[in-house]
Amino acid sequence: MQRSSGPSCPGWLMTAVAPWGENAEDAFDQGLVELGLGDSRIIQAQGAMLPLGFGATPPRSLPMGSLVECHLATAYAWNGSSASAGVAWASCVTPEGDECTIVATITTALDYEETTILLRRNLQRRLASRDLEVVEFDVAVDEVTAGQDHHGVAIAALILPDSLSLGAKTRTGPIRGALTRRAEEPKKRVDTKAPAAPARRPGQPQNKHDFTL
Q1: Dihedral over alpha carbons 142, 53, 32, 45 (to 10 degrees)
Q2: Tens digits of per-residue pLDDT, 124-139?
Q3: Does 207 have pLDDT greater than 60?
Q4: What is the chain's mean pLDDT, rounded?
């Protein structure tokens, strides 16, 4: 019996907290180690759309020096304060029947429950603005309370270990006209100049008109 090949763009959600950082950078680095990204080179992705072919898979160990695309949410705390970070993805269908997946992130100074609610709202807004119908979704949120006189960090990540290696094999979908601005020819600029004042010859009487407002 043959095993299924799995999604062309696998990925997984992970969270980590580090409450005892000497500084913010130290806390962040500790968080990366907890996420399993301590030996990886990270490309932080922006935007809501994930590569076509994304599918959720169990986490796996990454080789040292690997280049990994991540959607990160990073929330910092200090000296007993708390912060939360979250990431969510949703598999969707467009009105035309095309499948895609979007991602949303959030960082707050609120607790786990309130941050989860706000993250779901962010995800819903991204669905609504793109006229997408959700098929399934998943959410990951974590909360950190920094130690006394220390820096803390909460990191939530959607890790896409193979997306950058797809290269030219990365699939793209149709152009959705309502969501894509068409390139237009730049409008020609028309420069206008104020009329020059009439020249006056020596000895010519001055104009008596008053143009003051």
Answers
A1: -100
A2: 999 999 999 999 999 9
A3: no
A4: 86
Is the Cβ–Cβ distance between 157 and 88 less than 8 Å? no
Whole-number pLDDT of residue 165: 77
CA distance 106 to 110: 11
Q: Domain residue spans in the chain? A: 9-162
**Using a CB cutoff of 8 Å and minimum separation of 24, what contacts does 1-5 make?**
none
CATH fold label, 9-162: Pyruvoyl-Dependent Histidine Decarboxylase; Chain B (3.50.20)
Name the residue with tokens 């990270």.
42
Residue 163 makes CB contacts below 8 A (sequence gap 6+) with 9, 11, 51, 69, 170
Name the CA dihedral angle for 20, 61, 5, 72, rounded to a multiple of 10 degrees: 30
